[in-house]
């Protein structure tokens, strides 16, 4: 499988780009193109679309597009068979959740070893999706979609009554949901929960572009 898998790497840090190119080549993958900006990456993807099986993409790149707009452009430009793997230093849970909802196959942090990247490429080529770096997987998986909505409201400064009104439930239920989140995340107060929500991008994720 790996000897047949052709990669496009879009990454603006040359040391990381060179390390991935060399390292993944040693695992048997073929790097058919690389770029250091979203504009050049999209140009290469258009030119070599039929040759590319996997795009490894950093979302914070030089160019005319912000992270979400860049991802949407790569997703629309790539052929139906092409897999997208995000390779980013961005570890905020809300951002990762939002990116995964846009049709990418995997989200890896830049702290991962090349061997982990190679393992993930093989997995997505075998049909797996929704893969995330172990560093964030435990937190990501234990928070439900409803709880992420509550965290987004907390991150925007909403009180229990506001949350209850928005979700058409009682104040007691909103308070209980926040207390459950505190237990899941190992936090001891509502203030710590609000701080965690803000630090992890809840409430601001809709403004990313």
List keywords for this structure.
single chain, 209 residues, alpha/beta, Rossmann fold, Arc Repressor Mutant, subunit A, 2 domains, six-stranded parallel beta sheet, 10 helices, elongated, disordered C terminus
Round the Cα radius of gyration to an integer and report it: 19 Å
Number of domains: 2
Question: N-to-C terminal Cα separation, in Å?
Answer: 35 Å
- Residue-averaged pLDDT: 89
> So, CATH architecture of the largest domain?
3-Layer(aba) Sandwich
**Sequence of secondary-structure elements:** EHEHEHEHEHEHHHHH
**Number of E strands:** 6
Query: What would the principal axes of the Cα set say about the shape?
Result: elongated
Strand line-up in the sheet with most strands: 2-1-3-4-5-6
Percent of residues in helical segments? 40-55%
What fold name stands as the CATH topology of the largest domain? Rossmann fold
Largest sheet: 6 strands, parallel
Number of DSSP helices? 10
Under the CATH scheme, which class of the largest domain?
Answer: Alpha Beta
Structural class: alpha/beta
- Beta-strand share of residues: 5-15%
CATH H level, superfamily name of the largest domain: Response regulator
State the low-pLDDT regions, or none.
205-209
Tell me about this structure.
This protein has 209 residues and is of the alpha/beta class. It is 51% helix and 13% strand. It has two domains: 2-133, Response regulator (Rossmann fold); 143-207, Arc Repressor Mutant, subunit A. The protein has helices at residues 14-26, 38-47, 67-77, 93-100, 114-125, 134-142, 145-155, 160-167, 171-185, 190-199, and strands spanning 6-10, 30-35, 54-57, 83-88, 106-109, 131-132. The longest helix has 15 residues, at 171-185. The protein starts with 5 loop residues before the first strand and ends in a 10-residue tail after the last helix.
